Amino acid sequence: MVQHQFKVTTKWEDGRESVGKLSGDILNEQISIPAGLGGNGTGTNPDELLVSAASSCYIISLAAVLERSGFTNIDIQQSTIGLAIFENAKFKMDTITHYPEINVDTTQKEQLKKKLPKLLKIADNNCMISNSIRGNVDVKIEPILK
């Protein structure tokens, strides 16, 4: 079994209106409760980080799957939306939907159309974040071919 550790440190002082600090190997960001949830909205927040992790993991997995399948000149622009709900007196991330806009070499577009449903599923199954949240968060993929 291969193992890898990802270490971050966080610091928080005072109550819910405060601003904390998140640091990792590369990340160095302020954190707070989102303004839409009654916080001050400074820096990023755990919800945005979860959606960012899912989005960045999926786009990297998708690019790798396309490359391994022989596609060239890969260009993917992706937006991702996380839908949080308040249910049973708790907030939770309910759905994360990826909207990848995929462009490959012109001569390969028809081939991609045929293989795309299978490749999207393989990319999702190769994404560590998707695998980690599966069963708790519904992950959807709505592709657009350019």
Automatic annotation (TrEMBL):
InterPro entries: KH_dom-like_a/b, OsmC-like_firmicutes, OsmC/Ohr_fam, OsmC/Ohrsf, OsmC_Ohr_Peroxiredoxin
SUPFAM superfamilies: OsmC-like
Protein name: Osmotically inducible protein C
Highest rank taxon of the organism: Bacteria
